[in-house]
Amino acid sequence: MLRRNRELMLELACCLILTLTGVFVALGVSWRTALLVGALGLSFSAIAVGFSCWRYGRIKRLSGDLEQLLHGGKPLPIEHYTEGELSVLASQIQKMTLRLLENASALEKDKKHLANSLADISHQLRTPLTAMNLTAAMLSASDLTQERRQELTVELKHLLRRTQWLVESLLKLSRLDAGVVSFVRESVGVRELVHRAAMPLSIPMELREQRLVTQCGEMVMDCDPVWTAEALGNVLKNAMEHTPSGGTITVRAEQTPIYTRITVEDTGPGFHREDIPHLFERFYQGKGNSGAGYGIGLALSRRIIASQNGTIQAANGDKGAVFTLKFYRQTI
């Protein structure tokens, strides 16, 4: 230990120099005094060096425990470092090391999640891309009638729109997951919010002969109008896709001192009971899926609403499916 520890060697050298100096000074008095001073100096030197060796031994043991912890062993035995500044050091090292291990575990979890997400995204994109390739191949046939060509062109445009929506939704989810979205908080009328969310669906709903009923009064709520309209629009889109022709989608709103609640109710078949706990999971497609959805819209809605201190739930009502969105006025 002495050869490897320069600080300990320096400490021993200083003790010996002080002891010899005291002996030479004491020789001017008497040889007995010099002998007593020398004995005391050597004793104190031995005590100092012994204490230093004990302290460095504890540090060595702490280093060994830390190395074992870093290699996946058991946590630091804090009972070995219960006194003095060394215990404080051991405690701080353990906190730092545990934090590093937690971060490493989180990174590994994120890595697996990213790999699974990429696989799901690849699967989701493959379906419309395959359909577009088949449609394009059929359009190139020389014996294709004008009527059939027009039908395939409409189908191809529909597939392109769905693919564009899927890619844009995935990009929005990625931005939200990365935490790079800054939500603004503005006062907006609930009726205006519903109108903005339903505007892109007006033509499809008209073709389906569906009716949108809004019962929101003149209520005003604080939220990010753009992102909240995106979330509500995905809920309305889900309701539209599962409501039969001639059906009705009703949007109601009410306010309490704690939150603003928006409910979306349709006249469709509702949810299968086993699907309800998984409706907001990414890429989930339940038994009631007709092939029109990708399992992205509701997951995106929940992510947007949760980022604004809100909640979203789904249940079966008296006539069909019911979505309940709550936007709290303060943190709870």
Head-to-tail CA distance between termini: 58 Å
How many helical elements? 8
Chain-averaged pLDDT? 78
Task: Please report which band the strand proportion falls in: under 5%, 5-15%, 15-25%, 25-35%, 35-45% or over 45%.
Answer: 5-15%
How can the largest sheet be summarized? 5 strands, mixed
Unreliable runs, pLDDT <50, ≥5 residues?
none
Radius of gyration, whole Å: 36 Å
Based on secondary structure, the structural category is alpha+beta
- The coarse overall form would be elongated
Major beta sheet, strand line-up:
2-4-5-7-6
Describe the fold and architecture.
- This protein has 332 residues and is an alpha+beta fold.
- Helices cover 58% and strands 13% of the residues.
- It is built from eight helices and seven strands.
- It has helices at residues 6-27, 31-70, 84-139, 146-178, 190-198, 202-207, 225-241, 297-307, and strands at 186-189, 211-215, 220-223, 248-255, 259-266, 310-316, 321-328.
- The strands form two sheets. Strands 2-4-5-7-6 form a five-stranded mixed β-sheet, covered by helices on one side. A two-stranded antiparallel ribbon has the order 1-3.
- Helix 3 runs antiparallel to helix 4 and helix 7 (225-241) packs antiparallel against helix 8.
- The chain is elongated.
- The two termini are 58 Å apart.
- The relative contact order is 0.07.
- The mean pLDDT is 78.
